[in-house]
Design a protein that fits this description.
Layout lengths: L11 H30 L4 H31 L3 H15 L8 H14 L9 H11 L8 H9 L1 E2 L6 E5 L6 H7 L4 E7 L2 H7 L5 E4 L6 E2 L4 E6 L5 E3 L5 E3 H9 L3 E12 L5 H10 E8 L2 H7 L1 E8 L6 H10 L17 E2 L10 E2 L5 H10 L1 H7 L3 H4 L10 H10 L4 E3 L5 E19 L5 E20 L2 E5 L1
Parallel strand pairs: 1-12, 2-3, 2-6, 3-4, 6-9
Antiparallel strand pairs: 5-13, 7-8, 9-11, 10-11, 14-15, 15-16, 16-17
Helix pairs in contact: 1-2, 1-4, 2-3, 3-4, 6-7, 10-12
Protein name: DUF6094 domain-containing protein
InterPro entries: DNA_methylase_N6_adenine_CS (IPR002052), DUF6094 (IPR046076), SAM-dependent_MTases_sf (IPR029063)
Organism: bioreactor metagenome
Length: about 475
Amino acid sequence: MPELPETTDRYYALERLREARLTIGKGAQAMLVSRARIEKYRQTELARAQEAYLELQRTRDRTAAALGDARLALLETEEYSLSKTAGKLQTGLSGFNLMSMAYKPIYEALTGFADKLPVGDQTTNATVIGRLMNNVKLGYYPTDPENITHILRGIRFPAGMTTNLLDPCCGCGKALRQLAQGNNCYAFGVELDECRAEEAQTRLHRVGVGSFFYSRISNEAFHVLFLNPPYLSVLNESGNRARHEKRFLAESLSHLMIGGVLIYIVPYYRLTPDICRILCDNFTDLSVWRFTDGEFKKFKQAAVLGLRKRRADDPDGAASLEKLAYEPTALPCITELQEGRYPIPAISKTVELFKGEKFNEKELEQQLRNSDSFKRLMAHSELDKADKRPLLPLSIGQVGLIGGSGMINGLIDCDTPHIIKGRIIKVKRVESEDQYSSQGIHTGQEIKEVISNKMIFNVLTPDGFKALT
């Protein structure tokens, strides 16, 4: 097999598998040690034996959780056989009698499974890397219009009321526009990529440009939250890896009003325990639907729908939701979603604050174009349109300026109508000046030519032509 490329570190699934292999291997060894300690102290030091038993329980729980993580990561890498094995081991280990002496088969099964995980140079082949590279695709998966149509069927819009829709990663805006069109909605989107954001502005009412996480948006102002986040891992502030799917969900749900509808689209194997806990603690009437066969085969996408509620712990619901990720074939198809199952609250709401991370020149241009205030500012006032008389009589110089500019040319309609035309001509005149020395003796004469402007008004009256200068 070819060696593992150096860039493999960036693949979240392989990172999770590495962590799982380490935890499973250490857990298998630690369980043997703890069980031996129980046997050693059970007859003589019950307190130490009990401490060893509690440590054995904790180790078993950590190892079982690591098997669950490995199971989902293996589904992402399309290692279905290993994923099935992980599920069987997780179930068997969770129900294993810790006081049993048959630890050798458990140890061998766990370590044998850990060694098969595709995370080392000898076990990771180019096929696995190729699958992950195909799945990444820069994390951008536009939602298929056919599946949007099926989702729309399950949403009931209130009659006679305008609702607000939010997509925190709207791409070019096609999916959100399809949801909003014909349903009396205002569509708001945020997009990191400036080219896609510019395209989205041709389809949506408002578009914020830049990172959603640095945008400022009103809380509990939206009736529908449409969330199809990028499928990528990112570094959080502590330097650890985090999933975009989880961060977008956690940080966007506050913008959805209580009773509002969540549409959350992710690959089914990303319904991890932490995401399921967020969903169940904050939403009611949750349901999970796989996309139609063609889309599901390519991208493994599922739609989670629910109605927002006030936060309340629901660990049992999270455990039930988590199980759905392990049996994707058992998920109902989105075509089976009942019509009008999710009603939108009939609550009128105004979005007071909506600002993207970056200043949006295109949106400002559009708002100014549609602004009545701007139109009034640029329009001529009634005073500008009406004939006006000067407050004071014009001076000779002002009359000359007006006449020379041609502003009073033409017919003057008055008691004595006449036609007037003003023009300016150049006039030359010679001036002479006697020159004297400091002693008063006449030394000569200075002659100079002076050119000046002369204003002439030609006036045609019923009595004939006149020229005024």
